[in-house]
Each structure stands twice: as C-alpha cells, then as structure tokens.
Specification:
- This protein is 37% helix and 11% strand.
- The chain has 171 residues and is an alpha+beta fold.
- A hairpin with a 5-residue loop joins strand 3 and strand 4.
- The longest helix has 32 residues.
C-alpha cells in the first residue's frame, strides 16, 4: 500500500495510530506512545505534549492508561524522532498543548484540554464545565498564565526529581 501524500493540518488523515518505539523521558507507562483502546470505529485523537517537561510528563501519565471513548495516541514532541503534522513547527507544538481530534481539527491550549478531557473518564466533568458561558475563555487565560510560570515550575520540578533520584532530602 502506498504512503499517503502530504496532509494539511485540517485534513482528517489516517485514523490509525502508529506506535513510536520508545519514550526517552520515562513517562510512567509500560507502553510508551501507547494508543489507548477506544471504540472499534477507528476514531483516534492525537495528543502532542512536551516530554522534556517534568510537569507535562506527570500529567500525561495520569491520562495515558485511562479507557478513553476514542483512541488516544500520545506523541512526545520533544523527541526529534516524532513525526510532526504538516504545516506546524516543533516549536509551536512545544509552546502549547495540542490535540488533533478524530475529525482532523487541530486544537491548542484550553480547547485542546477540553477536547481530551471530554473523552476521558473522571475528567469529563471539566469538559462539561468548559461548555458553560465564559468558562473556556477563563480556562484559556489561566493556561496562558501557567505558560508564563512554566519555565520556573519546570526548573523546580527538575531539581525535585534530581534530589529524589540522588536520595537527598529537599524540595
């Protein structure tokens, strides 16, 4: 079977998920880049995350093994071997959380979180909350605030990880 040609970001593309060989950041999962098992209709949502970010790794670990209502494919954008969707740069994907919905729409920021939460048990209530007037906007503003603090939070999380792996005490 011939490989499909280039796709635009808004093209649905191929809904089949292809597993990546490894996750070089040690995200807590027995099967890195694992596709969650969803319904048999082939629908797949791709989640792009920054695997170099200790906060992002922890959050993705929370979602990774939940039984989603659509298949989820997690792609570590910090891994240079990760294939990117045509028309979007690695730096753009690293700058914000992104998902591609099964219908091919690419979402970023709070909208991406809301779309992912809508298919995950235990998180759907947040997606429903985001449908209330003005709430998605407030979530986006909070996410933008987090993004400004993220570098400092990452440094603190990395120091904490190193201190735990060294066996030394401290925050």
């Amino acid at each position: 079977m011939a490989e499909p040609g280039p796709r635009r970001i808004d093209d649905p593309g191929d809904a089949r998920a292809v597993a990546a060989p490894t996750d070089h950041h040690g995200v807590a999962s027995a099967t890195p880049h694992r596709e969650n098992t969803g319904p048999a209709d082939g629908a797949c949502m791709t989640v792009w995350y920054d695997g170099a970010c200790p906060l992002c790794r922890r959050e993705i670990a929370l979602y990774r093994d939940l039984p989603a209502s659509v298949s989820l494919r997690f792609e570590d954008v910090s891994d240079a071997a990760t294939a990117l969707p045509e028309g979007i740069s690695r730096s753009r994907l690293l700058s914000r959380f992104h998902v591609r919905q099964p219908d091919g729409r690419l979402l970023g920021g709070a909208q991406a979180f809301l779309a992912m939460w809508a298919v995950l048990p235990g998180w759907r209530w947040l997606a429903r909350l985001g449908q209330a007037p003005g709430v998605a906007w407030m979530m986006e503003q909070a996410y933008r605030g987090f993004l400004r603090l993220r570098p400092a939070l990452q440094r603190g999380a990395l120091r904490w990880e190193r201190s735990r792996s060294d066996g030394s005490a401290g925050p």
